[in-house]
Amino acid sequence: MTFQPGSGYSQLPEQPAGQVPELSVPSPARGTTGILNVLLITAAGIVLVLVGLFLFATLGSEAFILCGVLALIPLGICLLGLHWIDRWEPEPRGALVFAFLWGAGVSVAITLLLGGAVNEVLVVLLPLTPADVITTVIQAPLVEEAAKGLGVLLLVFVRRSHFDGPLDGIVYAGVVGAGFAFTENILYFSAALFEAGGVGLQLGFVFVLRGLFSPFAHVLFTAAIGLSLGIAVRKPGAWRIVVGFLAGLAAAVAGHMFWNGGMALVADDFFVFYFLLQVPLFALAVGGVTWLRRQEQRLTRQRLGEYAAAGWFTPAEVNLLSTPAGRRRALHWAGAFGAKAPMRTFIREATHLALTRQQLVNGRDLEKNLQREHLLLAALTRTRTSLLSVTAAGRRY
Fold first, then answer.
1. How far apart are CA 131 and CA 261, in angstroms?
2. Which of 19, 23, 241, 265 has CA atoms 20 to 30 A from the CA of 376?
3. Counts for the chain of helices (H) and strands (E), in that order
4. Which residues pair with 9 in a beta bridge?
5. pLDDT tens-digit profile of 248-275?
6. Burial grade of 327 (CB within 10 A; 0-12, 13-18, 19 or more)
7. Given this model, what pLDDT does residue 394 score?
């Protein structure tokens, strides 16, 4: 195939010459990237353990365990929502684990270490602003969103081949935000527990407000960073990533400031503010994500259609691979022969192939993506052979 940066396709994909040969294209960065991923996950995990030990020592065992269990409920709600977003092209588990560890551990550690210092600077710079406003409305959004956003930015560079667009950015940033909210909820729940002198209405009220009415607050704020970075990485150029990060960070900070400021202004009438801001914001986010998912499905269909024109897929296969209903039918059919696992692999590889070709269209990392395309085509051929052999064997019995 021949591609030129920014000029789109110069031709359709090459046609397969009979059985696709086993390709062994060298990828020097793979080993280094794998080691780096392990190191980053390990380091982030160590930081989370240290943060956990700090909270355990500060709060005591009973409060830490009780509030930790309560914090798992909104965390589960957030992760289920993010899983729904991520179903079309699932992100690597290692990257998602790192995102959670960064949010729950590293970003919290950064906030605890730098929050006080930043607050002191802001007090000097804004002498006429009340101290509680500085802490809640200005310092917290600035430090927290920057701390969370750095983790998303790191994923752009470490997981570049899997950071394909806005949906990927939303998923990664959302997991970071969910992790941060998990640890922060432990602190808020324990504060309510200690203030009331034990389990009671106050803890229940805080749990309902934070855990059930607004579990997605941090997810939505940080998702603005992921969305902006996801748009930026579609085209080559480091400056786009920098601009995307700063634009997303500004949006996240502004949203966080508005949320905290509004909560402070209507502390006695939370539900009015909730239905005026949180509900419309959440509805807008769901609508936006649904639209992005449909765009990604259309993109998958378009790119796989180009491979079908070259002979790599049949039109029927493209229909099965590029729609949710088609994928369900394919998995149901494969399940009758005990071949769900290879069918899932086939779907995943085809989706990655479509998104890799889109990166080539955008002129992004041409050499690496051409290598990746060749590897995916070879992998798809092997998976197809495995799938057909399993289903053929199933028909004989």
1. 13
2. 241
3. 16, 0
4. 3
5. 999 999 999 999 888 767 666 777 878 8
6. buried
7. 57
Instruction: Give the other-Cβ count within 10 Å of 160's Cβ.
Output: 17
Instruction: Give the whole-angstrom CA distance, residue 18 versus residue 259.
Output: 60
User: Is pLDDT above 50 for 54?
Assistant: yes
DSSP state of 88: S
Q: Is the backbone of residue 382 left (phi > 0), alpha (psi -120 to 50) or beta?
A: alpha
pTM of the model: 0.87
Residue 301, judged by CB atoms within 10 A of its CB (0-12, 13-18, 19+), counts as: middle
Among residues 198, 204, 203, 254, the alpha carbon closest in space to that of 225 is found at 254
Each residue's pLDDT tens digit, 4-29: 333 344 444 555 545 443 333 334 44
Q: In the Cβ-directed half-sphere of 106, how many Cα atoms lie within 13 Å? A: 24
What angle, 0 to 180 degrees and rounded to 10, lies between the N-to-C axes of helices 366-396 and 340-361?
160
What does the buried/exposed string (b/e) look like for 97-112 if buried means 16 or more CB atoms within 10 Å of the residue's CB? bbbbbbbbbbbbbbbb
Mean per-residue pLDDT for 299-318? 91
Report how far residue 154's alpha carbon sits from residue 260's, in angstroms, rounded to the nearest whole number: 27
Better-scored residue on pLDDT, 151 or 393: 151
Domain-by-domain residue ranges, the chain? 30-265, 299-396
Separation between Cα atoms, residue 355 and residue 369, nearest integer Å: 10
Q: What's CA 284's distance to the chain center, in Å?
A: 18
